[in-house]
């Protein structure tokens, strides 16, 4: 801030601007500066006529007199001092706020200096606060040298018009940019936040800066992760604080705690060592860090429930001072019987109340979580495994037998034949739910989802075992290894179930394959699996059901009917309690009965989809490509999940908002990990809360959520994120929306949707840039930009070269293209952030064809499938071209002889060549196999320079392209020339015109026929076809005819009959062609024919001649007659 | 459900078409002057000045009628949509007929801009075809009638229940057709024409 700059800022034309801003921003000033300003304005009254002065005059300042004698020599020096003072104030505030505020260090606005112009929401003071807090600067007075961004919500017209003089070329941004940047915790690109008034103009001309991220934002990107890490470690520290404190109570262990790793296993071990002593000391108090240990986490505690209440009030001190865990709780390493475990109860249950790492542990021990995340693991393990496929003839369904139990008990032979169930806990209260039971247990009627106490009532000697997720993972991996070994088409359904397409398997007999696989699974994993083989997935699954346990079943196609007829409907997948009940009411128990009912009535009774499903399934028809029910979403590995989240509905109890905050932090961590695990980032965040109903007591299920009402709030931010601290801030904000007593919260979940792949962002950019290069048409851009963009393009090409196929593509195709077409700024259209696809016809097929197939597929998707057709069209075209040995005529000017010789030669040899004559620059012949779009620059300025006979021989599309590129006004004359060249070599001898294909082809058949006709009027018709731009619309031909007043339309009597019948036939066939789709056209044609009657009676007669026919077809198609009478002029 | 359907080309073109029909039908009603012109307000649609009914019920009638057709248009079941002006005796005076043809086999992406551009021409052509229309006597009424290729199954959608068989009479003679505008594109073909009673129609 030198004297010079300030001076210049206030001198000359600039001074007005800076004063404007002063006056429009009275709120910018702190009171003291306002006073000073007032003072000064007063003083300078005589020579400074500004608005600010008027404002200053009205405000009273007590300190006025003190300033009267101030030693400022002129206004400039005053402002220098003032600005200096303001900066000092700002700096002081910034440093004090960063010291006191918790959010220190997040200087996302580093290097940003804003100037607020006019009224904004939030107010300039709030923006100033943001800047203070996040390391930016706030300028009270505009200066081109200090300000980097101008913030305003609205601009007056005069400023819009003179934007440059107003903004000095600086970005003019809406205030939401600041807010969103704060929300996203990084400096966002200001481009999308540009003032609307300006954006419309500027969008047309995207800036390079949009394409290459701002330097500032990149800097802040670098900062952001660091900050993130910092925060993470901080929170981790704090979350562990409870744990460390506990240990710290025992001074002799202090050294060991220092060695404690942040994530607990070792920590636990240490705790275990001392567990016995502690239990002696504080027998009743323990905290559940044992939950770190797999399997045994969610122990029920009932005995000490009473004590709970007593301890609750001082629980905060409990947490700090008392109790390290009674670690032997973990059932999996202790072989204790369940009864002995009961004694190891704690007064601080496994709720969010006591356990710092509750969330983490919760998910570690959740079976559903295991299943849910299994898919991601599977995808990573077998990334190449194909996605959904249709089973042609043979499908094998492999399903491990009661997987969750079998894996746990495989090493415990003593349990092999006993009833065993897997469950979180085995407390005498028995309110835990069984998640899986083995076959002996199932014989007692024990099912998944049953409470332990109910199960025990049925089977008193039921053994309850905890989960062993490590073993599950291992076995599931082995299971899939075996499947993939035997079959390359494996469709995973779950960790224990898969479908195999064994249609073209090496092993002939699928039954033998099944037994081989089953044996291998049993040998390797120690668990048994069942297999079902049938024609489709449905039948295979049903067969597996029959085969279980440890068996296999084959349903050959001929036995499907018998099998199904006897099958109770309840056994079909997709039929649950409700549907089965409904069917039962209709006396439908088996598929046989179901089959009797028609599809329509099924659809009527059960809805379209369900009805359809029932009808199909009862017949053993399975049209699905893959399982569509949500249970097996995992099926198609390529299917991306729509949302990612985590929800905890068990053990959630809070005392105060701090607990909630802590819980949310952990939840955010979990969600963030999941997002990162899936490689995605999300933009929309939903916080779900289960709130205890006011009349609901403590739920039956221990620590369950009981009767709840579900609440949710969501928010969408502009930048996708997976960062913990951003998530945290968002969830805090969301949580603030709930007016809720934290004690009523029974469950919380955070869900992230609007997912964007982390790689995708880059991908889109790449795509964008490639596409922009594929665009053959050029957009005009300023020279400067052109140069820079081209160099940048070069850079990118170089960059892309490094990454494989795509890079190769660029160097091979794009590179040359960029060079050859240097006049166009190739980067132009790629710059804007939205992917704007270039029109299909602008794509250079030659380039596209050479792209690697996967890239083509991608682009094709973007064009909605039209690209492939374009390519195939192009291929057929080039095939034609290749047949011709392109003749190169480099003669100066095409002579008449040559013109004449061309058709014959071409007709004989089927050669196609296009002469492109370049006026004076000499003749150059473009080989047609070069993509037409590249020829723009070499196109002749008029079609007269093109040999029309050659043109006519060209395939239709190619000719259209060429004609399209010609300047319109030249088209007609040249075509006239062409058509006046009677080409004797045309093979079209006059045939009977009655064939129904007069309008087929391009040009339509009749053109050729009429051209060679000896009848004058017909020749004229053919001529008009070319003059009217080769359209297939009769109306435009007639229109043309009507406007060419000089063309004689008289018909001599000897030609009359011939011409009449030909024209009638022509119009009639045209009407037939158009009757379905375009009666407007017919109507216009009839009217034009009427008007042409003036010139020749022939047309009137033609009109009358076809009218009966026309009216008949109108009656047929529209139930009416065409209105013709009134237009007879 | 809506969202999913709109992803098909048919759904997409049906959606555009329904929106257009709503505007076009309102324009026709405005054009015929059956309500005072103050009952309409000027709006912009496809960059054209169009008119929108101010009266909420009129607006709602047109809106719900055409939107109720959406699922059927999508399936190609609707052949024609007619705006019929008739006198108290239920004998139609004038019928504006939209003949629809949604290409059921069209598989590529619908170019919304191109389609809207074509549809725009209808709205331009409509006001200039006013001289072709008949002057309506007072006390006229009007209705929107859809002609289905086949009757929709009753249970398929609740929307269909809003439709009732019309009791408007038919002309005894074949009507006279005056085309107003036609378009035929790949995803969607649309024709608008005017039907008047034939001259030989017995006058009641």
From TrEMBL, chain A:
Cofactor requirement: Mg(2+)
Class of this enzyme: transferase
Residues binding Mg(2+): 496-497
Disordered: region residues: 1-66, 329-348, 886-926
Biased composition (Low complexity): 8-37, 57-66
Domain BRCT intervals: 104-195
Keyword NADP: no
Chief location of this protein within or outside the cell: nucleus
Composition-biased stretches (Polar residues): 336-348
Gene3D superfamilies: 3.30.70.270, 3.40.1170.60, 5' to 3' exonuclease, C-terminal subdomain, 6.10.250.1490, BRCT domain, DNA polymerase, Y-family, little finger domain
InterPro entries (alphabetical): BRCT_dom (IPR001357), BRCT_dom_sf (IPR036420), DNA/RNA_pol_sf (IPR043502), DNA_pol_Y-fam_lit_finger_sf (IPR036775), DNA_pol_Y-fam_little_finger (IPR017961), IMS_HHH_1 (IPR053848), REV1 (IPR012112), Rev_trsase/Diguanyl_cyclase (IPR043128)
Record localization: Nucleus
One of the record's GO molecular function terms: damaged DNA binding
EC number: 2.7.7.-
GO cellular component, one term: nucleus
Residue stretches making up the UmuC domain: 395-576
GO BP terms: DNA biosynthetic process; DNA repair
Keywords, alphabetical: DNA damage, DNA repair, DNA synthesis, DNA-binding, Magnesium, Metal-binding, Nucleotidyltransferase, Nucleus, Transferase
Cofactor note: Binds 2 magnesium ions.
Domain of life: Eukaryota
Summary of the function given for this chain in its UniProt record: Deoxycytidyl transferase involved in DNA repair. Transfers a dCMP residue from dCTP to the 3'-end of a DNA primer in a template-dependent reaction. May assist in the first step in the bypass of abasic lesions by the insertion of a nucleotide opposite the lesion. Required for normal induction of mutations by physical and chemical agents.
Family: Belongs to the DNA polymerase type-Y family.
Name of the protein this chain belongs to: DNA repair protein REV1
Lineage of the organism: Eukaryota, Viridiplantae, Streptophyta, Embryophyta, Tracheophyta
From TrEMBL, chain B:
Keyword DNA damage tagged: yes
Keywords associated with the record: DNA damage, Nucleus
Record Pfam families: HORMA
Protein name in the entry: DNA polymerase zeta processivity subunit
GO terms for cellular component: nucleus
Location in or out of the cell: Nucleus
PANTHER family: MITOTIC SPINDLE ASSEMBLY CHECKPOINT PROTEIN MAD2, MITOTIC SPINDLE ASSEMBLY CHECKPOINT PROTEIN MAD2B
A single BP term in Gene Ontology: DNA damage response
Keyword DNA damage among UniProt keywords: yes
Organism: Abeliophyllum distichum
Residues in HORMA domain copies: 11-194
Tree of life domain: Eukaryota
């Amino acid at each position: 801030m030198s004297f010079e700059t300030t001076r210049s800022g206030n001198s000359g034309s600039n001074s007005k601007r800076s004063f404007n801003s002063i006056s429009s921003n009275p709120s910018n000033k702190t009171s003291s500066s306002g006073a000073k300003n007032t003072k000064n304005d007063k003083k300078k009254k005589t020579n400074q006529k500004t608005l600010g002065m008027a404002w200053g005059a009205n405000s009273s300042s007590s300190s006025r007199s003190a300033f009267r004698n101030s030693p400022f020599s002129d206004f400039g020096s005053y402002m220098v001092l003032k600005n200096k003072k303001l900066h000092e104030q700002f700096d002081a505030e910034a440093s004090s706020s960063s010291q006191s505020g918790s959010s220190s260090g997040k200087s996302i606005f580093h290097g940003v200096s804003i100037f607020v112009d006019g009224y904004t929401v939030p107010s300039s003071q709030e923006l100033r606060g943001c800047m203070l807090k996040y390391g930016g600067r706030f300028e009270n007075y505009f200066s081109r040298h200090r300000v980097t961004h101008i913030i305003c919500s609205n601009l007056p017209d005069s400023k819009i018009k003179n934007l440059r003089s107003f903004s000095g070329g600086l970005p003019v941004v809406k205030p939401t940019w600041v807010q969103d940047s704060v929300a996203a915790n990084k400096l966002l690109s200001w481009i999308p936040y540009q003032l609307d008034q300006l954006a419309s103009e500027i969008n047309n001309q995207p800036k390079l800066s949009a394409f290459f991220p701002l330097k500032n934002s990149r800097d802040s990107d670098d900062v952001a992760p660091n900050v993130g890490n910092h925060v993470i470690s901080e929170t981790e520290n704090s979350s562990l604080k409870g744990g460390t404190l506990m240990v710290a109570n025992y001074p002799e262990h202090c050294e060991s705690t220092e060695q404690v790793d942040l994530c607990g296993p070792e920590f636990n071990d240490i705790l275990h060592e001392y567990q016995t002593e502690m239990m002696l000391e504080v027998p009743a108090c323990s905290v559940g860090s044992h939950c770190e240990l797999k399997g045994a986490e969610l122990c029920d505690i009932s005995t000490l429930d009473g004590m709970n209440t007593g301890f609750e009030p001082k629980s905060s001190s409990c947490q700090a001072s008392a109790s390290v865990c009674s670690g032997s709780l973990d059932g999996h390493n202790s072989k204790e019987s369940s009864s002995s475990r009961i004694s190891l109860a704690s007064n601080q249950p496994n709720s969010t109340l006591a356990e710092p790492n509750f969330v983490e542990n919760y998910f570690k021990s959740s079976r559903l979580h295991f299943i849910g995340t299994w898919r991601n693991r599977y995808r990573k393990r077998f990334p190449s495994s194909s996605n959904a496929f249709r089973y042609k003839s043979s499908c094998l369904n492999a399903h491990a037998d009661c997987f969750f139990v079998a894996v746990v008990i495989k090493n415990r032979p003593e349990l092999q034949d006993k009833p065993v169930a897997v469950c979180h806990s085995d407390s005498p209260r028995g309110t835990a739910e069984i998640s899986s039971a083995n076959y002996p247990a199932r014989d007692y009627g024990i099912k998944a989802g049953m409470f332990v106490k109910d199960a025990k009532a049925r089977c008193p000697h039921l053994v309850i075992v905890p989960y062993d997720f490590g073993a599950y993972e291992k076995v599931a991996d082995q299971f899939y290894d075996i499947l993939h070994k035997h079959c390359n088409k494996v469709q995973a359904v779950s960790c224990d179930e898969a479908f195999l397409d064994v249609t073209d398997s090496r092993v002939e007999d699928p039954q033998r394959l099944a037994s081989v696989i089953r044996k291998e699974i049993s040998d390797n994993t120690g668990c048994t699996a069942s297999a079902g083989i049938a024609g489709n997935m449905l039948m295979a699954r049903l067969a597996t059901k029959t085969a279980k346990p440890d068996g296999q079943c084959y349903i050959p196609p001929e036995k499907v009917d018998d099998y199904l007829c006897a099958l109770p409907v309840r056994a079909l997948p997709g039929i649950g309690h409700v549907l089965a009940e409904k069917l039962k009411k209709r006396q439908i128990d088996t598929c046989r009965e179901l089959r009797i009912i028609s599809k329509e009535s099924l659809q009527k009774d059960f809805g379209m989809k369900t009805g359809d499903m029932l009808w199909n399934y009862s017949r053993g028809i399975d049209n699905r490509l893959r399982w569509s029910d949500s249970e097996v979403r995992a099926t198609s590995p390529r299917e991306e999940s729509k949302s990612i989240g985590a929800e905890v509905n068990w053990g959630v109890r809070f005392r105060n908002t701090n607990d909630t905050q802590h819980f949310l932090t952990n939840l955010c961590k979990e969600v963030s990990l999941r997002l990162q695990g899936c490689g995605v980032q999300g933009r929309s965040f939903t916080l779900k809360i289960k709130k205890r109903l006011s009349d609901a007591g403590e739920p039956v299920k221990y620590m369950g959520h009981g009767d709840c009402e579900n609440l949710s709030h969501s928010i969408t931010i502009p930048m996708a994120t997976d960062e913990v601290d951003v998530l945290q801030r968002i969830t805090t904000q969301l949580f603030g929306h709930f007016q809720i007593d934290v004690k009523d919260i029974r469950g919380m979940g955070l869900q992230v949707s609007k997912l964007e792949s982390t790689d995708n962002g880059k991908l889109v950019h790449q795509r964008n840039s490639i596409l922009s290069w594929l665009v053959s048409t050029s957009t005009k851009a300023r020279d400067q930009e052109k140069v820079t963009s081209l160099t940048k393009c070069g850079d990118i090409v170089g960059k892309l070269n490094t990454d494989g196929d795509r890079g190769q593509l660029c160097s091979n195709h794009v590179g040359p293209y960029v060079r050859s077409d240097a006049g166009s700024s190739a980067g132009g259209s790629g710059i804007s952030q939205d992917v704007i696809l270039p029109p299909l016809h602008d794509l250079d097929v030659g380039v596209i064809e050479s792209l690697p197939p996967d890239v083509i597929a991608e682009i094709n998707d973007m064009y909605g499938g039209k690209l492939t057709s374009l390519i195939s069209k192009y291929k057929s075209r080039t095939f034609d071209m290749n047949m011709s040995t392109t003749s190169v005529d480099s003669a100066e000017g095409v002579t008449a002889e040559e013109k004449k010789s061309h058709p014959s030669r071409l007709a004989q040899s089927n050669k196609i060549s296009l002469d492109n004559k370049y006026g004076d620059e000499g003749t150059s012949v473009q080989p047609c196999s070069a993509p037409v779009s590249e020829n723009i620059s070499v196109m002749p300025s008029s079609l007269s320079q093109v040999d029309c006979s050659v043109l006519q021989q060209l395939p239709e599309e190619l000719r259209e392209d060429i004609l399209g590129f010609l300047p319109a006004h030249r088209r007609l004359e040249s075509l006239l020339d062409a058509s006046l060249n009677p080409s004797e070599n045309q093979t079209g001898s006059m045939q009977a015109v009655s064939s129904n294909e007069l309008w087929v082809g391009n040009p339509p058949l009749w053109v050729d026929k009429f051209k060679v006709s000896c009848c004058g009027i017909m020749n004229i018709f053919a001529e008009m076809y070319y003059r009217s731009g080769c359209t297939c619309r009769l109306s435009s031909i007639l229109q043309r005819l009507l406007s060419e007043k000089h063309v004689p339309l008289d018909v001599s009597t000897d030609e009359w009959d011939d011409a009449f019948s030909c024209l009638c036939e022509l119009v009639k066939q045209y009407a037939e062609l158009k009757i379905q789709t375009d009666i407007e056209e017919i109507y216009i044609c009839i009217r034009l024919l009427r008007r042409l009657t003036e010139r020749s009676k022939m047309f009137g007669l033609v009109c009358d001649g076809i009218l009966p026919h026309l009216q008949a077809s109108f009656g047929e198609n529209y139930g009416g007659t065409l209105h013709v009478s009134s237009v007879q002029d | 459900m809506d969202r999913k359907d709109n992803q098909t080309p048919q759904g997409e073109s049906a959606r555009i078409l329904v929106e257009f029909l709503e505007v076009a039908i309102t324009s026709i009603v405005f054009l015929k002057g059956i309500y005072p012109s103050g009952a309409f307000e000027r709006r912009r649609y496809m960059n054209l000045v169009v008119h929108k009914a101010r009266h909420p019920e009129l607006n709602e009638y047109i809106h719900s009628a055409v939107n109720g057709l959406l699922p059927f248009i999508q399936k190609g079941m609707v052949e024609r949509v007619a705006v019929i002006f008739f006198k108290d005796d239920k004998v139609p005076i004038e019928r504006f007929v939209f003949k629809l043809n949604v290409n059921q086999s069209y598989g590529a992406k619908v170019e919304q801009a191109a389609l809207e551009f074509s549809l725009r021409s209808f709205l331009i052509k409509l006001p200039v075809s006013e001289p072709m229309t008949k002057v309506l006597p007072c006390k006229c009424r009007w209705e929107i009638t859809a002609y289905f290729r086949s009757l929709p199954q009753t249970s398929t959608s609740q929307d269909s229940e809003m439709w009732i068989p019309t009791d408007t009479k038919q002309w005894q003679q074949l009507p006279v057709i005056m085309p107003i505008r036609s378009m035929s594109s790949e995803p969607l073909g649309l024709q608008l024409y005017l039907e008047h009673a034939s001259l030989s129609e017995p006058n009641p």
